[in-house]
Amino acid sequence: MNYQFDFSIISDNLSVLMQGAARTLEIACLSIAFGFLLGLTLALLRSLQIKTLKYAVLCYVEAIRNTPFIVQLFIVFFVLPLIGIKVDPYPAGVIALSLNCGGYATEIIRAGIESIHESQVEAARSLGMSYLQAFRYAILKPALTTIFPSLSSLFITIMLGSSILSAISTPELTSVAYTITAYKYRHFEVFSFVALLYLFMSVLLSTIFKYVEMRFLSLEGKRSFLGIIRDQLHGKRN
Amino acid sequence: MNSQYYAARDLIFGDVLYMLQATLTTIELSLIAIVGGLILGVLVGICRASVRRPLAIVSRLYVELFRGVPVLLQIFLFYYGLKILHVGMPALLSASLAFIFNVSANVGETLRGIILSIPKSQWESSSSLGFSSFAQLRYVILPQVVRAAIPPSIGIMVGLIKDTSLASIIGFIELTRSAALIMGVTMNPFQVYPVVAVIYFVVCFSLTKTSRWLEKKLV
């Protein structure tokens, strides 16, 4: 093997790569926000017990969950213009990612809604809580506690999945990396660095989610930030 | 809308046949990856559930690495890594390797959950009944683990089949790539991509249904 590794391409283009990483986080945040809202809406629609609505939501969820994201992306990017909606790579990527996130979020949120029993609200009310308190302590907090771990891993998957947007050259980390490699053909070096950046971002997100979960949703009461980090390093769950 | 779209021609039966052939390639790649991934994943799962610290730490890093990096990047790294090493057939080989490692991390994490969910008292009571450690594993633990692992493994398989579509980006001709090739001839995304979506849906949904049915039956 007479291949000389040359990592200078990374230091030369560091600012461009960092901008790409920022765009990836931006796209991920937008898609997660839209996707969560979509999932919440669909899950609520589904819980209305109207048969047509229920089946429509079910069809949507199954369609999203059983087809690859890249095909969904191509449908948004190539097929929507044919019916008169012209979309640039950036909005097309965000739309596809949000639709995808929404499909998965619907299932998770539905499970959360179903985990709440009416008797919980009645019990809270009979303990003298106001309607608002009952909603907060007897519905929202237990439901969020149930679904938060699945939601946070979905959100991390969505962040990682945004790399696929490079297939339609949305400006994000992976396509920025691809553009850089065109100068010197140092694909391996650039992609190793980019992989590390993604790893860092996913660890970052999972630490933030873990912190939120333990700080606000833990049943054992509030924990200090350092304690949570320490537990995570030791691989403890709750 | 300022640009006009012209389809060169309609989708014909031959195109669909070509895509169905490519579906077989998709399934082949998935089978290679699931077999390799299950074998490697069992090792990862055992290490992950192990009480030995070095094993547990190394396997945890392994899992975090393969689940914290996008699958697409893993494929790229294997693809360009193999190119540096001058290995032939880089597309098939790198896609297989990337998916095997990725699946093994997912399987390992699932297995860990299942192994840890078996109460400690079962080990204790079976050893107090005079079972050797091999017999404990063979007659008490393993049957439960296998039963609990089948439905999530099918779930992982569905995820894998969807992920194999990413191999199209490095030029491996499977279902998604074949669609892109047909797109190049017909210029007709309106017909091509929905057909692809339907094919994926049929394959994945039947697996999903099987896994739900098994879940009811086995539990």
Number of helices of chain B: 8
Largest sheet of chain B: none
Measured by residues with Cβ under 8 Å of the partner chain's Cβ, the largest interface is:
A-B, 38 and 47 residues
Structural class of chain B: mainly alpha
What is the CATH H-level superfamily of chain A? MetI-like
- Give the second-level CATH assignment, the architecture of chain B: Orthogonal Bundle
Second-tier CATH architecture of chain A: Orthogonal Bundle
- Tell the overall outline of chain B: elongated
Which descriptors would you attach to this protein?
heterodimer; A: 238 residues; mainly alpha; MetI-like fold; 10 helices; 0% strand; B: 219 residues
Structure, described:
The complex is a heterodimer of chains A (238) and B (219). Chain A has 238 residues and is mainly α. Chain A contains 10 helices and no strands. The radius of gyration of chain A is 22 Å and the shape is flat. Chain B is mainly alpha-helical. The interface between A and B is large, with 38 and 47 residues.
Please describe the topology of this protein:
The complex is a heterodimer of chains A (238) and B (219).
Chain A lengths: L7 H5 L1 H33 L4 H15 L3 H11 L9 H26 L3 H9 L4 H31 L11 H12 L2 H31 L7 H9 L5
Helix pairs in contact in A: 2-3, 2-5, 2-7, 2-8, 3-5, 4-5, 5-7, 6-7, 7-9, 8-9, 9-10
Chain B lengths: L12 H37 L3 H16 L2 H14 L5 H28 L2 H9 L4 H31 L11 H12 L2 H30 L1
Write a compact overview of the structure shown.
The complex is a heterodimer of chains A (238) and B (219). Chain A has 238 residues and is mainly α.
